[in-house]
Amino acid sequence: MNIAKVLDAKGLACPMPIVKTKKAINELEVGEILEIHATDKGTKSDLSAWAKSGGHELLKDTEDEGVLKFWIKKG
């Protein structure tokens, strides 16, 4: 996967991971991939809904040692 940008949102509580994701994805070109690292458990459902409503694609999400990782392709 070719990652255009990595966003570190670890330690941030809702809604900040979404706010920072929105800002970061606006800096990308259509089709580029943003990787997000977060620790707030609510981010999983929030990012999924946000990506869908914004026309973006949540490609994958994983959890490793309490860190949630997401890959979103800009739509």
From TrEMBL:
Highest classification ranks of the organism: Bacteria, Bacillati, Bacillota, Bacilli, Bacillales
Source organism per UniProt: Falsibacillus pallidus
Domain of life: Bacteria
SUPFAM superfamilies assigned: SirA-like
Domain UPF0033 stretches: 7-31
Keywords: Transferase
Pfam families: TusA
GO molecular function terms listed in the Swiss-Prot or TrEMBL record: transferase activity
Protein name as annotated: TusA-related sulfurtransferase
InterPro entries in UniProt: TusA-like (IPR001455), TusA-like_sf (IPR036868)
Record family assignment: Belongs to the sulfur carrier protein TusA family.
